[in-house]
Amino acid sequence: MPRALLLRRAELLDGRIVDVRIEHGHIAALAPQLHDDAETVIDAAGGLLLPGLHDHHAHIAATAAARNSVRCGPPDVMNARELEAALAVPGQGWLRGVGYHECVTGALIDRHWLDRFAPQRPMRVQHRTGRLWIFNSAGLAALRATGLQPPAGLDSETGRLFDEDGWARRALGGRAPGFAAIGAAYARCGVTGVTDMTPGNGAAAAAHFAREHASGALPQRVVLAGAPDLAILAPGVSLGPVKFHLHEAHLPEFEVFVAAIEAAHSQRRAVAVHCVTAAELVFTLAALRDAGVAPGDRIEHASVTPDAQLQEIATQGIAVVVQPHFVAERGDAYLADIPADDWPDLYRLRSFLAAGVALAGGSDTPFGDLDPWAVMRAAVTRSTAGGQMLGLREALTPEAALNLFLADPAALSGTRIVAMGEAADLCLLAKPWRAVRETLSAKHVCATIIGGRLIDDRVDQPPLQGGCGAYAPA
User: Fold this and answer.
1) 179 vs 56: CA distance, rounded Å
2) Under a CB-based contact definition with an 8 Å cutoff, are residues 192 and 448 in contact?
3) Residue 178 in 3-state DSSP?
4) What are residue 31's phi and psi, to 5 degrees?
5) Quick check: 367 and 59 in contact, CB under 8 A?
6) Distance in angstroms (rounded) separating the CA atoms of residues 414 and 406
7) pTM for the predicted model, two decimal places
8) How many Å apart are CA 74 and CA 385, to the nearest integer?
């Protein structure tokens, strides 16, 4: 059990300066001044104390794998010549590339394009949507050598594999990646919880998450969404919604989709539906009208939301999980490729809140930046990488942007607070809110606490100005 911990002179979001005593993984006392009798004492020196941030939409295994992959798209790779240079990696085994987009090369590449640069080494490159893998000829040969029946989504002529990640994992084999680097990266950002939204999560994924959490490699509390038959029996890993990943070109039969939603609800599970086009959103809302909405039902992304669908989301009481940093990371491409009449409907924020929709934020890592503070900044500025404004009327205040990551991970409603009896999952910043709100940067995080245990603390290093001034282990 973690030792008692005392945080002195911490600022809360309501402006109070308090001492906070943590015992047995919970906040045991909170007052203007407490006796200094804990085993470990941290002087926050007026720095802001928050509930730990929660990333409401992530793909942890894919993020871990991506860290051992070659970046093949913006902002790291911007044109065909840079992509050729990025793929010129010596070696014999599989080369894995991620983040590719056709804006790099002007048209979607295929196996023949890859063969020009790596004819001998097996290679696979993932599109940034996560839906497509492109294999070179050596990679296709390696797949055929496994003896597995090729799926319908594999085009041997182009080397493109659509929507068949499960088959690819079976064919490629290998061990599931460790999550220690991801857990550490999250802790540096003050993240104490994460919802993994990978639709194929099943028994094997649940067992791996349980092991990584129990070992401390991924110390964050995990909500695991995924397949309808997913079951969780592990401390620190809880069962999330059934995930449906819709694709406009291949929508399921409407009655089948409605029945799947009803089946999830009958198991007392919410549903989370991937909607990145207006057609996918219209289809989903119609299905939820027929099936009925259950607490915790949510739309993932809501990338394009016309006014009529926004109002229906509000009327039906459906939550939305947004990724406003895609405006920063991909906004210039949106401005170039999407008709101007559709720009006001892209990645809406303020309109959802004005309509009373429960709104939460997710990184969609590895398809977006893992850092929640970068997501918050993008929600406030609505600026593309090229400095253009996209949907400035949808911008949030810094307070509303912060609340995207303070929402309850189950209901996505309300804002978690630092209070007596609450779990001691906390993020301590080195400065007060009045300073933090101006920059919204992870550099201000100086301690992350999960279950009363210091996971990441930098208070024994030279302190940032204005906070975390002293650290005194007994």
Assistant:
1) 17
2) yes
3) coil
4) -160, 165
5) yes
6) 8
7) 0.87
8) 10
State the Cα–Cα distance between residues 136 and 110, nearest whole angstrom: 7
Give the sheet arrangement for strand 470-473, strand by strand. Answer: 26-31, 17-23, 5-11, 40-43, 470-473
Residue 354: phi and psi, rounded to 5, are -65, -30
| Residue that has been written with the tokens 């909170």 in this structure | 30
Q: How far apart are CA 474 and CA 470, in angstroms?
A: 13
CA 415/CA 396 separation, integer angstroms = 16
Q: Which residue has the tokens 């949907």?
A: 391
Q: Which residue, chain included where needed, has tokens 């997501």?
A: 375
Cα–Cα distance for residue pair 293/315, rounded to 1 Å = 11
| Contact between residue 158 and residue 41 where contact means Cβ atoms under 8 Å apart | no
Q: Token pair for residue 7?
A: 């945080």
The number of residues making up the chain comes to: 474
Judged on CB neighbours under 10 Å (0-12, 13-18, 19+), 434 is exposed
Contact 362, 321 (CB under 8 A): yes
Amino acid type, 198 = T
Beta carbons within 8 Å of 119's beta carbon, 6+ residues apart:
136, 137, 138
Rounded Cα–Cα distance for residues 384 and 373 (Å): 16
What are the backbone dihedrals phi and psi of residue 449, each rounded to the nearest 5 degrees, phi first? -125, 130
Secondary structure element (H or E) that encloses residue 167, with its range:
helix 165-172
Where is 81: in which H helix or E strand? helix 80-87
Helix (H, G, I), strand (E, B) or coil at 128: coil
Q: Which alpha helices (H) appear in 216-371, and where do they start and end? A: 254-266, 278-291, 307-316, 325-337, 350-354
- Please state, as a whole number, how many other Cβ atoms lie within 10 Å of the Cβ of residue 17: 16
pLDDT, tens digit only, all 474 positions of the chain: 456 899 999 999 999 999 999 999 999 999 999 987 777 899 999 999 999 999 999 999 989 988 888 889 888 899 999 999 998 888 888 888 888 989 899 999 999 999 987 778 899 999 988 889 999 999 998 888 888 888 888 999 999 998 887 788 788 876 788 999 999 999 999 999 999 999 989 998 999 999 999 999 999 999 999 999 998 878 999 999 999 999 898 899 999 999 999 999 999 999 999 999 999 999 999 999 999 999 999 999 999 999 999 999 999 999 999 999 999 999 998 998 899 999 999 999 999 999 999 999 999 999 899 999 999 999 999 999 999 999 999 999 999 999 999 999 998 988 999 999 999 999 999 999 999 999 999 999 999 999 999 997 654 443 333 345 443 333
Let me know how many helices (H) and strands (E) the chain has, helices first.
15, 23
